[in-house]
């Protein structure tokens, strides 16, 4: 089997916009909100203006004392300005460590401690809110606030007019960006990316975008702290594609934005697509102009793809599903169309990209990996991260030569297609795939906005359901829908907003199982 070559393309976040602006400087970037740190910029600006914001912010950070190779934790209220700050940190040669705005203070404190007294780039809302309970003087080298003021922080706005400095480009194999894992299994791990690994991922995604033959407006709702955001920004800017970024993911708001801008490309998290199904009944038909749908963070339900594809008026719309991981970037993918989305096996993740990614299945118990006995999914890619910062031993446990063992289990079809059944930690005895059960039942019950099967206190499967408008679950319809499924416990109904989530809207299954155990276990 071929060996995946090292990437010869490097992605430097601090200069990508400046370089893109030379050819596509007038390309518009539109937001659905004002940026906290740059309120005077407005909601529509160009790639050239974005590049200028990055450069001027980098000059201010240098004036604040930030230097090459230092760690800068970026943790502020959710807003697109997070991307400007991250690119500015990279421009001075420092390493942005992206911490989700949704992390609790205890987790932020642990990550700051792991980063060994980084600079903290934050805002007044965080400093007077969740961060107020942390000993920031001990955990950080300095604190810089991008809004308001604080007695223990340098005010970024006060450094306006700082001397202009040239960008610093580190060696392509040095740390260039840190993002964190979803945290579905505990305190998130800090994933260290290099300019080379980011370049490999960007090359993969650029090839995908190259199939879009005309200049389409791209609308995205993606976590600002996820590596996907920075690769998306880089590829779209260098391709001159108009961009619309949404901060508010509520279906009614998203529908308004889509009606106003009529994008040809729409990307978000799988769970967001599921929640957005309710906008498909909007008489303004907000999805009608979308030709390309993209979901890159997790498996998506076939019924959801089917509904969105049929809501488009474009000829032969395409739904791209990509299987990837924070540590490796995109690994395998496939496209779906109107004719086959509903017939699709929701566990099918598609095929690796020749000479860019590959995978293998490894036995978990001595048996050949099959649907009934899924094996470890090992992957090889030039986009693999360098390490988990401060947890090298933990990272090394998942490295097997050139292969990376990410914790998912699945099997290969006779056509060479990769099927993902579950994460190993989510496997429940007696169920081949919890995800497969969820796919089947969600397709049958349109009133569900979410279904998650997790182990109960006795390790037996408990379905947690959310309904549209939080209406009571119809028990008779439920029994009919699950009649041919593995034996499930009684459904537990929750409001969608009460489910524990990651930064990319995934359900934190282990945390949900823990919560259920507390509720369902009798007190002694």
Strands, count: 25
Helix content: 25-40%
Please describe the biggest sheet, giving its number of strands, its sense, and whether it closes into a barrel: 14 strands, mixed
**Global geometry:** globular
Name the beta content range: 15-25%
* Tally of helical runs: 15
Mean pLDDT over the full residue set = 90
* Secondary-structure content class: alpha/beta
- Cα end-to-end separation: 58 Å
Low-confidence sequence ranges: none
Cα-atom Rg, whole angstroms?
Answer: 23 Å
InterPro entries: AMP-binding_CS, AMP-dep_synth/lig_dom, ANL_N_sf, ATP-dep_AMP-bd_enzyme
Pfam families: AMP-binding
Organism: Streptomyces ziwulingensis
Protein name: AMP-binding protein
Secondary structure blueprint with pairings:
Elements: H1 16-24, E1 28-31, E2 44-46, H2 47-63, E3 71-74, H3 81-91, E4 95-98, H4 105-114, E5 119-122, H5 124-127, H6 136-139, E6 142-145, E7 154-155, E8 175-180, E9 190-194, H7 195-209, E10 218-221, H8 227-239, E11 243-245, H9 251-261, E12 265-268, H10 270-276, E13 292-295, H11 302-310, E14 318-325, E15 329-336, E16 348-352, E17 357-362, E18 375-381, E19 387-388, H12 392-396, E20 399-400, E21 403-412, E22 418-423, H13 434-444, E23 448-455, E24 461-467, H14 475-481, E25 492-493, H15 509-520
Parallel strand pairs: 1-11, 3-4, 3-5, 5-6, 6-7, 10-11, 10-12, 12-13, 13-14, 24-25
Antiparallel strand pairs: 1-2, 8-9, 9-19, 14-15, 15-16, 16-22, 17-18, 18-21, 20-21, 21-22, 23-24
Protein name: AMP-binding protein
Pfam family, one: AMP-binding
Organism: Streptomyces ziwulingensis
């Amino acid at each position: 089997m071929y060996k995946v070559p090292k990437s010869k393309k490097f992605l430097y976040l601090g200069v990508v916009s400046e370089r893109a602006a030379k050819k596509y400087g007038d390309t518009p970037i539109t937001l659905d909100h004002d940026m906290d740190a740059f309120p005077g910029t407005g909601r529509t600006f160009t790639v050239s203006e974005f590049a200028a914001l990055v450069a001027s912010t980098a000059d201010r950070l240098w004036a604040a004392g930030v230097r090459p190779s230092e760690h800068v934790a970026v943790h502020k209220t959710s807003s697109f300005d997070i991307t400007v700050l991250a690119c500015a940190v990279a421009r001075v040669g420092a390493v942005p460590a992206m911490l989700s705005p949704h992390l609790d203070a205890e987790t932020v404190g642990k990550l700051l401690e792991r980063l060994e007294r980084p600079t903290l780039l934050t805002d007044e809302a965080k400093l007077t809110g969740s961060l107020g309970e942390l000993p920031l003087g001990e955990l950080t080298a300095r604190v810089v606030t991008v809004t308001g003021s604080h007695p223990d922080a340098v005010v970024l706005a006060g450094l306006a007019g700082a001397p202009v400095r040239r960008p610093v480009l580190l060696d392509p194999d040095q740390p260039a960006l840190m993002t964190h894992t979803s945290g579905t299994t505990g305190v998130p791990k800090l994933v260290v990316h290099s300019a080379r690994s980011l370049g490999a991922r960007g090359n993969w995604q650029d090839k995908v975008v190259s199939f879009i033959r005309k200049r389409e407006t791209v609308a995205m709702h993606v976590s600002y702290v996820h590596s996907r955001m920075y690769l998306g920004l880089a590829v779209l800017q260098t391709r001159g594609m108009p961009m619309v970024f949404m901060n508010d993911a509520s279906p009614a708001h998203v529908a308004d934005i889509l009606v106003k801008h009529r994008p040809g490309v729409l990307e978000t998290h799988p769970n967001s697509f599921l929640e957005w199904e309710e906008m498909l009944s909007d008489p303004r038909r907000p999805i009608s102009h979308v030709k390309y749908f993209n979901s890159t963070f997790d498996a998506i339900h076939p019924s959801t793809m089917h509904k969105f594809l049929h809501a488009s008026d474009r000829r032969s719309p395409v739904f791209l599903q990509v299987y990837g991981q924070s540590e490796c970037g995109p690994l395998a993918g496939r496209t779906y169309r109107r004719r086959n989305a509903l017939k699709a096996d929701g566990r099918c993740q598609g095929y690796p990209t020749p000479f860019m990614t590959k995978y293998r299945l490894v036995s978990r118990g001595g048996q050949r990996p099959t649907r009934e006995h899924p094996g470890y999914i090992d992957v090889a890619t030039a986009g693999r991260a360098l390490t988990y910062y401060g947890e090298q031993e933990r990272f090394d446990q998942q490295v097997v030569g050139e292969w990376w063992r990410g914790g998912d289990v699945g099997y290969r079809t006779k056509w060479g297609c990769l099927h993902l059944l579950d994460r190993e930690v989510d496997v429940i005895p007696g169920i081949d795939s919890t995800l497969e059960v969820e796919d089947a039942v969600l397709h049958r019950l349109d009133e569900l906005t979410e279904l998650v099967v997790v182990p109960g206190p006795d390790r037996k499967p408990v379905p947690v359901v959310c309904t549209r408008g939080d209406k009571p679950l119809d028990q008779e319809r439920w029994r009919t829908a699950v009649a041919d499924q593995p034996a499930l416990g009684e459904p537990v109904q929750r409001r969608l907003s009460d489910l524990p989530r990651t930064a990319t809207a995934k359900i934190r299954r282990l945390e949900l199982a823990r919560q259920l155990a507390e509720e369902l276990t009798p007190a002694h």
